[in-house]
Amino acid sequence: MDLWYMLIFTVFPYVCLTIFVVGHGYRYVTDRFGWNARSSEFLEKESLFAGSVIFHWGIILTFFGHAGGLLIPQRVFDFFGIDARGHMAVAYWSGLAVGIAAFVGALLLWRRRLIQPRLTAVTTRNDRITLAGLAVVIGLGLFNVVFGHYNVLYTLAPWIRGIVTFTPDAGLMRAVPLSYKLHVIAAWALLAFSPFSRLVHIWSAPIFYLFRPYILSRRRAAL
Ligand code: HEM
């Protein structure tokens, strides 16, 4: 049993992280022109807009929620007067809102690829795995929010911090309910798959575009 915990909650995450890092480097070197979101906007716009906007807002806020809520230890929240109860309440309501958005958005994106013939024709197996993977990971996360009601602050959260700081402790996952375990296992697997999919576009978000200087266009002066 200990060996299984060690394999699933220590070895597996590091294998996935290694594939994630090396895979992105490899993809960048070997397929630089394929490094994009492969937008299908020119084939179909209407349903893309709703699905994509809802999905992207939901998933990006979910990402920041996970980073803030799990990577920052509870003692830091305690210092600022937010006890575990308050922390869990904020996590519940915000997780519910952004989780529903990400899940509904992913289903809308998946649906349009199933029912629009022009999109079905260009949808690859890789696209189906990506959207299905996202739907499974987000679906399990949302299931945990709605039905789990499990306090992750003293088990799952320190476990993930241990992975990030190279001090893993698989034993912390022992008391964690199965649906939470499945959520993190599916998330690690998706992380390992992502360098080989269109998800690479995440790392090319045009953030600097927001801060770039204005481009001034002037009329040619009348001669
Ligand atoms: C970091 C900021 C991000 C930017 C600027 C961005 C931008 C884009 C753009 C321009 C597209 C193509 C057009 C469209 O489908 O809307 C796209 C598609 C997509 N993005 Fe993102 N994205 C970001 C983050 C993410 C994240 C965090 C995920 C998931 C973890 C994600 C998953 C997807 C998927 C699955 C598609 C394909 C949708 C489809 O055509 O079926 N994106 N993204």
From TrEMBL:
Every NarG-like domain range: 7-220
Coiled-coil region: none
Recorded catalytic activity of this chain's protein: nitrate + a quinol = a quinone + nitrite + H2O
Localization of this protein: Cell membrane
Alphabetical keyword list: Cell membrane, Electron transport, Heme, Iron, Membrane, Metal-binding, Nitrate assimilation, Oxidoreductase, Transmembrane, Transmembrane helix, Transport
NADP among keywords: no
Residues bound to heme b 1: H56, H183, H201
InterPro entries associated with the record: Heme-iron_electron_transfer, NarG-like_domain, NarG-like_sf, Nitrate_red_gam
Pfam family, one: Nitrate_red_gam
GO cellular component assignments: nitrate reductase complex; plasma membrane
Chain positions recorded as heme b 2 binding sites: H66
Main location per the UniProt record: membrane
Transmembrane segments: 6-26, 47-72, 92-110, 131-150, 185-211
EC number, UniProt record: 1.7.5.1
Membrane topology type: Multi-pass membrane protein
UniProt-recorded Gene Ontology molecular function terms: electron transfer activity; heme binding; metal ion binding; nitrate reductase (quinone) activity
PANTHER family: NITRATE REDUCTASE PRIVATE CHAPERONE, REDOX ENZYME MATURATION PROTEIN REMP FAMILY, RESPIRATORY NITRATE REDUCTASE 1 GAMMA CHAIN
Subunit structure: Dimer of heterotrimers each composed of an alpha, a beta and a gamma chain. Alpha and beta are catalytic chains; gamma chains are involved in binding the enzyme complex to the cytoplasmic membrane.
Protein name per the record: nitrate reductase (quinone)
Organism: Desulfococcus multivorans DSM 2059
Organism classification: Bacteria, Pseudomonadati, Thermodesulfobacteriota, Desulfobacteria, Desulfobacterales
